[in-house]
Amino acid sequence: MGQDIISSQPFKVVEDGSITSPQGFRAGGLHCGLKKTTRHDLGAIVCEVPAAAAGVYTTNVFQAAPIKVTKESIGAGGLLRAVLVNSGNANACTGEQGEADAYEMRARFAEAIGVTAEQVAVASTGVIGENLKMDKVRSGIDSLPAQLTGSIEGADGFSQAILTTDLVQKTICVELEIDGKKVTVAGAAKGSGMIHPNMATMLGFVTTDAKIGSEALHTLLRQATDLTFNMITVDGDTSTNDMLVAMASGLAGNDELTPHHKGWDAFAAALRYVCEVLAKAIARDGEGATKLVEVQVRGAVSDEAAAAIAKTVIGSSLVKSAVFGADANWGRIIAAVGRAGQPVNPATVDIRIGDIVTLEQSRPVAFDEELALEYLKGDTVVIGVDLHMGEGAATAWGCDLTYDYVRINAAYRT
């Protein structure tokens, strides 16, 4: 993508950018001993000034202790100075001790960087139902400030520290001009398994130097989430720890962004793009996955109906298995469309796999099976569904279902 403008969008991708590219941010990570390997398992993002903050969280009834802490921190005034993250242990379903540990993490890191506890958010990911090894966490927190830098190395250390079964780091950075000032928006995320819409199982972090208030930032973050993170699925499971946190330092020098600001739509587009890139990276990195699958639904009675249908198709184990096997079985697709619980005219549905039309006006179309096979062997598969009923449209992302998914999750704790 490099420095090219993304189609007609008012921003450009910064190839060597990171979550520390926006003005005012430092990051870092280290290994404190929560993971059995020597991979980083404790990291943080710190802002040199109080940053406007917003968060979106899992809809799972069993919410991990760090979510309670982070909701409290952001709710205290909409400002954050830091977010502290550990991997290797979810600190979920750990009762009063888990909450006490999360609060201790917040207080200890706040003291380590010289801010109040309410200005620190906490996030955790890993095994559910095990207490944190707080002796290791405390030691790690004490050592972490020395690892915080505004360099790409600091950002890389943080991105490593948030991973669990992920195979790759997931990062993106874009920049745009608002009020004659360069504004940067960047993100980092983790997620590979237990991924499903309604706050897909993931941790995501967005930094920006745009000047914007907490409420306005939350509005845009919620909108972006609905169109990106809430439109991906890997396995239909939603975890206890999902969290997306955005921080805006305000150091770019633009006039404060509001819905009436001429740069509002441009910033919203940049934020959505950052979230979309991260969401698609999570889907592509699904546990055991070999392909990114994109489902495009058009012609629905509403965007909401299109979204429900797209999510049903992308979440179908039969569709996912067919993609893995490179089987152009459009019957799996139309069956998923029909059970989505949305208005569908059984006589007007078109389906295509890539550019190959397999169904037109709900009637089978003869197609080249060998050509379809070659297409489905690729690393990205696009499925198109046109209902011919209205103007509603939506896109969802997922991955194929492979033997390795079972292998990975059968041995997750060991």
TrEMBL record:
- Give the annotated active site: 201
* Principal location listed in the UniProt entry: cytoplasm
Q: Where is this site: Involved in the stabilization of negative charge on the oxyanion by the formation of the oxyanion hole?
A: 125-126
Q: Which residues bind substrate?
A: 164, 190, 201, 287, 409, 414
Q: Which InterPro entries match?
A: Arg_biosynth_ArgJ, ArgJ-like_dom_sf, ArgJ_beta_C
Q: What class of enzyme is it?
A: transferase
Pathway participation: Amino-acid biosynthesis; L-arginine biosynthesis; L-ornithine and N-acetyl-L-glutamate from L-glutamate and N(2)-acetyl-L-ornithine (cyclic): step 1/1; Amino-acid biosynthesis; L-arginine biosynthesis; N(2)-acetyl-L-ornithine from L-glutamate: step 1/4
The superkingdom of the source organism is Bacteria
Q: Which GO terms describe its molecular function?
A: L-glutamate N-acetyltransferase activity; L-glutamate N-acetyltransferase activity, acting on acetyl-L-ornithine as donor
Q: PANTHER family per the record?
A: ARGININE BIOSYNTHESIS BIFUNCTIONAL PROTEIN ARGJ, ARGININE BIOSYNTHESIS BIFUNCTIONAL PROTEIN ARGJ, MITOCHONDRIAL
Per its database record, what is this protein's job?
Answer: Catalyzes two activities which are involved in the cyclic version of arginine biosynthesis: the synthesis of N-acetylglutamate from glutamate and acetyl-CoA as the acetyl donor, and of ornithine by transacetylation between N(2)-acetylornithine and glutamate.
Could you say which protein family the record assigns here? Belongs to the ArgJ family.
Q: Give the protein name, as stated in the record.
A: Arginine biosynthesis bifunctional protein ArgJ
Q: What is the lineage of its organism?
A: Bacteria, Bacillati, Bacillota, Bacilli, Bacillales
